[in-house]
Write a structure and sequence with these properties.
- This protein has 216 residues and is of the alpha+beta class.
- The protein has a single domain (22-207), classed as Transposase IS200-like (Alpha-Beta Plaits).
- The chain is built from seven helices and six strands; from the N terminus they run E-E-E-H-E-E-H-E-H-H-H-H-H.
- The protein has helices spanning 45-61, 87-106, 125-141, 156-159, 171-174, 181-190, 197-207; strands at 5-10, 14-19, 28-34, 65-71, 75-81, 118-121.
- It is globular, with a radius of gyration of 17 Å.
Length: 216
């Protein structure tokens, strides 16, 4: 489905247009979804665990494949491959279910997430790998962890075989590396010198992160 423009009527009779997301069966996206007004969406360990359970349920319901994720204090990153249902349905279900949990637990009212999540279509192999790296380095760049495997709420520890989170599909990612794939992937991610600065800046621009690695 390649719709381009959707027109929304807002108060006062003003009509605004926004570009619709490109979707087709098998499309892969880098997704970022932030808390409303950039407020925290995770308050304690239970919140992270509940979100992961909701994410697992959504993956099954909408037949999506998760290649990488990272849950930060006030936003999430996903590297997600769709099957035969458009990405908007998956994200609507994920956001609404978690918002219901948060509002009930903390006696909040209203939105938990910003109304429109950010997404970038991932079509090239190199971009897929760089996005996986970018997602897993979020906690390190934000100074929340010294190494990506030190952070509990991402798929990195599953990727390198320390745990199995039950939701991350790592075969496609590791298939890009020939011999000793786990070691090569770990080496690729943890090379935090200046080698990949341009790629990081490009991904950040494409996904709409307008601050450089904010410490949240």
């Amino acid at each position: 489905m390649h719709d381009n423009i959707k027109y929304n009527n807002i108060k006062g009779g003003i009509t605004i247009a926004r570009k619709l997301r490109v979707w087709f069966p098998g499309a892969t996206y880098h997704i970022m979804h932030r808390g409303v007004r950039r407020k925290p969406i995770f308050e304690d360990e239970m919140d992270y665990q509940v979100f992961l359970q909701i994410l697992k349920s959504a993956l099954i319901k909408y037949r999506c494949v998760l290649h990488a994720y990272c849950l930060m204090t006030n936003h999430i990153h996903l590297l997600l491959e769709t099957c035969d249902m458009e990405i908007g349905k998956f994200m609507k279900h994920l956001s609404e279910c978690y918002a219901m949990y948060v509002n009930h637990k903390y006696s909040y009212r209203g939105h938990v997430f910003e109304s429109r999540y950010k997404s970038c279509l991932v079509e090239e192999d190199a971009y897929f790998l760089q996005t996986s790296r970018y997602i897993h380095l979020n906690p390190v760049k934000a100074q929340m962890a010294n190494y990506p495997e030190d952070y509990s709420w991402s798929s990195y520890r599953t990727m390198i075989g320390l745990i199995d989170d039950g939701i991350t599909e790592k075969k496609k990612t590791l298939a890009y590396f020939s011999n000793n794939a786990v070691f090569r992937y770990r080496e690729f991610v943890e090379d935090i010198g200046h080698k990949y600065v341009v790629q990081e800046q490009h991904i950040r621009k494409m996904i709409g992160e307008d601050e450089l690695w904010l410490p949240w």
